[in-house]
Amino acid sequence: MQPDESLDEFMEGRLKLIQSRNGYRFSIDAVLLAEFVSIKPGETVVDLGTGCGIIPLMLLLTKRVGHAFGLEIQPPLADQAARNAFLNGFDKKMDVILGDIRRPPLMPSSADVVVCNPPYRPQKSGRINPDPQRAIARHEILASLDDILDLARKLLRPKGRLAMIYPAVRLVDIIVRMKGYNLEPKRLRVIYPSLSSEAKLVLIEASTGGRSGLKVMPPMIDQGNFSI
């Protein structure tokens, strides 16, 4: 571990994670996405912008993933993800790839499932965090929604699935753009902070070349199973 890192335990100690003390740390959004995505036994999963590796590690712990890949552009985070895979005993089932979503060193049609907890804010909206790791995680500085959807379409095999978490106010935007990349939305779950609040986030899963027909799942209040 580096001096500026911490070692944290999650899932009742089943998962240990090295994270930056003051830089980027994963949020509940990644946890909710890992719980939401549907995985069939033996499937290959690619996580775009894996950070410290929280999503593929949770999937390897809780679902029958065949192999997981985490793509990360920032070397310190990619290094953390690789060390976290080793720390949790998944170094044989998880590979971390240092690379750019816009120019990825990944083979086309190599994934059954792609997951992504993307930056939510367009590059020129709102205040940019002075911390580079947090800024890249929150704003579309190094990858736009179109970059993510274009790569997902290329990586997925026929009938493959893309799962994302996204702001509810941009729901129409993401549905329209998914369909433009031949990704048909099939499952949707809306997240509300409380029963009296407007929706905050949506979990959405799309299929390559799927037929039209969207299953709207029961709403999630607060953080669902992870609420205190």
Word description of this protein:
By secondary structure, the chain is α/β, with parallel strands linked by helices. The protein has a single domain, classed as Vaccinia Virus protein VP39 (Rossmann fold, 3-Layer(aba) Sandwich), CATH 3.40.50.150. Helices cover 26% and strands 31% of the residues. It is built from six helices and eleven strands. The protein has helices spanning 28-36, 54-62, 75-87, 132-138, 145-155, 171-180; strands at residues 5-10, 15-20, 43-48, 65-72, 94-98, 111-116, 156-167, 183-192, 201-208, 215-216, 220-221. The strands form two sheets. Strands 3, 4, 5, 6, 7, 8, 9, 10 and 11 form a nine-stranded mixed beta sheet that branches. Strands 1-2 form a two-stranded antiparallel sheet. Strand 8 (183-192) and strand 9 form a beta hairpin. The longest helix has 13 residues, at 75-87. The radius of gyration is 17 Å and the shape is globular. The protein starts with a strand and ends in a 7-residue tail after the last strand. Mean pLDDT is 90; it is low at 128-141.
Lay out the secondary structure.
Layout: E1 5-10, E2 15-20, H1 28-36, E3 43-48, H2 54-62, E4 65-72, H3 75-87, E5 94-98, E6 111-116, H4 132-138, H5 145-155, E7 156-167, H6 171-180, E8 183-192, E9 201-208, E10 215-216, E11 220-221
Parallel strand pairs: 3-4, 3-6, 4-5, 6-7, 8-10, 8-11
Antiparallel strand pairs: 1-2, 7-9, 8-9
Helix pairs in contact: 1-2
CATH-level-2 architecture: 3-Layer(aba) Sandwich
Helix fraction by DSSP (H/I, runs of at least 4): 25-40%
User: Which sequence of SSEs, written as H and E, runs from N to C?
Assistant: EEHEHEHEEHHEHEEEE
For the record, give the distance between the C-alpha atoms at the N and C termini, rounded to a whole number.
30 Å
Strand content: 25-35%
Mean pLDDT: 90
Fill in the CATH topology. Answer: Rossmann fold
Poorly predicted regions: 128-141
Measured on Cα atoms, how large is the radius of gyration? Answer: 17 Å
Query: Got a strand count?
Result: 11
- Write down the overall geometry: globular
CATH homologous superfamily identity:
Vaccinia Virus protein VP39
> What is the number of domains?
1
Structural class: alpha/beta
CATH class placement: Alpha Beta
Number of helices: 6
Give a quick account of the main beta sheet: strands, pairing sense, barrel closure.
9 strands, mixed
